[in-house]
Structures are given as C-alpha cells and as structure tokens.
Fold this sequence. Notes:
Distance between the termini: 68 Å
Strand order of the largest sheet: 1-2
Shape: elongated
Number of helices: 2
Strand content: 5-15%
Radius of gyration: 30 Å
Order of helices and strands: EEHHEEEE
Number of domains: 1
Number of strands: 6
Mean pLDDT: 89
Amino acid sequence: MTTHAKTGVSHPEAGVTFVELIIVVTILGILSAMAVPVARFQIKRQKEKELRAALWEIRDAIDKYKDAADRQAFQTKADSFNYPPDLETLVDGVEVQTKKVRFLRKIPVDPMTGQTDWVLRAMKDDADSDSWSGDNVWDIHSKSQATALDGTKYSTW
C-alpha cells in the first residue's frame, strides 16, 4: 500500500503481480492439458461411429445383392454363391431385366485409414485369413490394426 502525500489516505496498488500471473498461467495450462485427452477421445469415438456406419452400409449392400441373386433377378458365376465379385459391382450395378440396379452409391471411406480399400473376405476364406481368394465378397473389415475404445481391433469388426 502507498500513502498519498497530501491526504494521508492509503490506496491498494493497482495491477497484477508476477506471482499472480504465474498462478493464472499454471491454472490455464492444467485446464488445457485436461482438455486434450477428452478431445482425442471424442474424435476417436466419432471415427468409430463412422466406421460402424460404413461397415453396415457395405454389408447391407452385399446382403441385398445376394438376396436379389438368390431370387434369380440376374445371373452370377456358379462358384460365387450369389455374392458380388467385388465392391465395384455394388456401385456399378447389374442389369435386372431392362434396368440397372445399384446397391451402393459409392464405396465408403474407411475412417480409420482414410482410404476406400477394405480387407475383403470370400465365403470360402478362413475367418482369420489375411488374404482374399477373389471368388466373391462375403464380408469386409478395416485394414486398420489400431485398437478401439472397447479394446478390440478395428480389423475384427
């Protein structure tokens, strides 16, 4: 405190001390450090949600193709078990009578890899196989080997 020379009244000093400034900066640093993991968690959870949606969309298209082929709406190769030969066929479509029927508008991007190249499995491939025999597309999964929030690998979804 300082005392005014003429009036003799004391006034608290205006301004912020260096110690107060350090305390404020430290508190802001701690709060921002706590926010970073929360933000990363939210981003990862959003990508997992997008991955589930993409897998559902492609698998639904595979099932619709198979259902149509089982009803003999179009011809498939004898050894294909009526599954599509590749994902592009789901996008390009097939001729059903005089109409082109498409099962996917586009191949979804795998949010974990940022690519549209998925690991494909044919019906006769082993469940733990890393290679695709190329006969048909029975199932798909992500190429990402990262671990999900629930502890499983994305490649097993």
